[in-house]
Amino acid sequence: MKNQVDNIIEKNKITDEEILETANSLRWDLGENLHDSLLESIYQDAAEISEKVVTKVDEKPKFDWDRTLDRLLTSKWTGFPIMLLILTIVFWITISGANVPSALLASFLIDTIHPVLKDVAAYFGTPLWLDGLLIDGIYLAMAWVISVMLPPMAIFFPLFTLLEDFGYLPRVAFNLDSLFKKAGAHGKQALTMAMGYGCNAAGIIATRVIDSPRERLIAIITNNFSLCNGRWPTQILIASLFIGSMVPAALGGLVSATAVVAVALLGIILTFVTSWFLSRTILKGEASTFSLELPPYRPPKILQTLYTSLIDRTIFVLWRAIIFAVPAGAVIWLSANVMIGDQSIGEHIVNFMDPFGLLLGLNGVILFAYIIAIPANEIVIPTILMLTVMILKASGVGEGAGVMFELDDYQIYTELFAAGGWTLLTAINLMLFSLVHNPCSTAIYTIYKETKSIKWTAISTFLPLVMGIAICFFVAQIWRIFIGAG
Amino acid sequence: MIDPVMALLTAGAVCLGAFLMFWPEKGLIARLRWSKDTGKRVLMEDALKHIYNCEEENVTCTFHSLAGALLKEPNQITPIITRLESLGLLTISGQGFQLTSEGKNYALRILRVHRLWERYLAEETGVPETAWHEQAEIKEHIFTEEDANRISRQLGYPRYDPHGDPIPTASGDLPPHRGRLLNNFSEGDIVQVIHIEDEPSDVYAEIIERGIYLGIQIEISKKLKNSIHILVAGKVQTLPVLLSGNITVQPAPEEQKIEEPLQSLSSLKTGEEAEVAGISRACRGAQRRRLMDLGVVPGTVVSMVMTSAGGDPKAYNIRGAMIALREDQAGFIHIQPLKKVN
User: Fold this and answer.
1) Of the candidates A89, A122, A106, the residue with the CA atom closest to the CA atom of residue A194
2) Chain centroid to CA B333: how far?
3) Could you give the ipTM of this predicted complex?
4) A43 vs B281: CB contact, 8 Å cut-off?
5) B310 → closest Cβ in A177, A290, A480
6) Which of A382, B16, B195, B314 lies at a CB distance of 3.0 to 4.6 Å from A404, suitable for a disulfide?
7) What gap in Å lies between CA A217 and CA A450, rounded to an integer?
8) Is the pLDDT of residue A426 over 70?
9) Interface test with B, best of A35, A36, A278 (most B CBs within 10 A)
10) Nearest beta carbon to residue B309 from set A175, A285, A485
11) Where are the domains of chain B?
């Protein structure tokens, strides 16, 4: 073949340069449609071939299940109510189903295994510092993350995957797209947001379903505004302690639940506002392509779904969280046990941060807890408790310096927080800050893995942090002007 | 405890300060980055571009036209010209200036970066059409030759920018001028747009606003003194000469002439079927590739299946798959009635 070409060139006395030159000059006349024409001819050839070799059974089913279901699930009148109903059921199953295994895991890992480990360490004469660092610090942080995180995720993710498998989730995106379009986002962001309620890291991984670069970045950056399951316990505890207690006991539950829902709704509003802002400023130049495939409905493969969602989502995310919780446990223990002068490092830092914390309507303990608990929102409340006891030098509460704990009795919580100088403003701002602050380090790492960009990782980290500080600051000042010192 | 009113005022002042510092293009940081030296080089390069354009259009370039183009007083132009002459980029003779061959190459390099960047913005980003020229005006002074070659390679060595202007090759080649201005054709001609001048930007924006883009067919229905009536995408429009003078066209190829006005996919009602006639050229880059990947090519039969509960995306059956498209996307897809097959 090559010889033949060489011969032709030899005969016609064409040099390589001349060929290239001719090709180059011809390219000016190829026009802009070249790639389109190529693609069109490929489709045409494929169509001709399939016409010849594929025999089609031309038979219309008597009753088209898909269209009938679609009419019900995407109609103006029934589409939204059905969606709300299904999502409510999923959340209800998750919350009520996770309570019992969570409590069991906690009592097993923290109340049973922890003392056993301590005894074993004492038996072997392990030095006190090593025993504290490994068992009180690292082991407890890990135990906390597992017992809070695992049960809800193990229920929520499979349920979600079943809906996805059945083909319902793309219809949710289809129905909600016009709403998201107004904010410059993609309808599928509804799904990644919902996933974020389980875990932001999983929600961020789920943004892979959005194939348009701009809308995907929006979904990644704003996923943090979906209150993840590590933050729900904080919201519920603080709302019950401070907001529910302001009304008669009979109404307490309802009022505190309303307060938590209000915070979650604020998260949704912030998602839309931030999406709108991002799509019109820093993300304006990113390419955007919308497309959404609505697959046919399929009976879900239940066992396969259980397996893949447990392995791909639950275990994967849990493992990442554990890896990050280990150093956090060590840092928390060390901060309470390494002394400089007559105070621990933790006390120095808390005292140093206190003025700034108070300016934001929070306090030094909360700020420091949010810094050392970056690896996991689950350990924020245990860390706050441990630090508060440490600062107050309270005796009889807690397990000792650097040991995270939780309490069963609301009365003791209230007394401890009152002694720590907490007010209603502190509680409200803690709830706000818990919603709007930097993502946990698992989520930050996941953002980096997904975007492969330091820039977008930094923006996803610092944008909510700055927003949270600003929100707390303004709420605190306005509160102090209108309601009084708090 | 700090007084809350004081705290609010301080925070307000800090926000204002940060705003003045970091405001894009007008903030302190942006101004500092655009140093004096860059400013001088930019003026010189803009002058070269202007002289090159004059030579292309066979007009004499004078101090006054140059001053107008660079928005400077004529006497501020003198140092620029002397500097360019001492660098051997141009010669001064009689009335105007001529570029030397180095000067011409320099000007072509700038044009190359400018047009490549416009092409890049059009194909790979979501930057709005009206902002392309402005951004390329900045980048043409920043990118090096290697940058230009890299962008060109990434884009698959494109030959034309999104306005239809040829992109000079790395060796400075340009094709002969194509087409004529729309004003030069007569009533009844069917022509195809091959170039839309992107300066001044408001005229360009108005042309785009009227739905005229590269590749579209225009039928000239009437020519008046100050305006020209055209039939474009099935609609009659009156185009002032100011606009039509910025549009270059060539006679439409015989086999591609479109007789019937086209409809767009978004006009299809539930259950209706139609055949794709093509995708508008206004839909470009990733968005266009996406649609074609889905099988939206001439000849594909599509049907509208349902509308979402929110009203906007509609689901279409495209080659056996149900694909939801937004209204504006469906508007890019031209359709024609199905050919009756018995």
Assistant:
1) A89
2) 20
3) 0.81
4) no
5) A177
6) A382
7) 10
8) yes
9) A36
10) A175
11) 4-33, 36-99, 180-256, 263-336
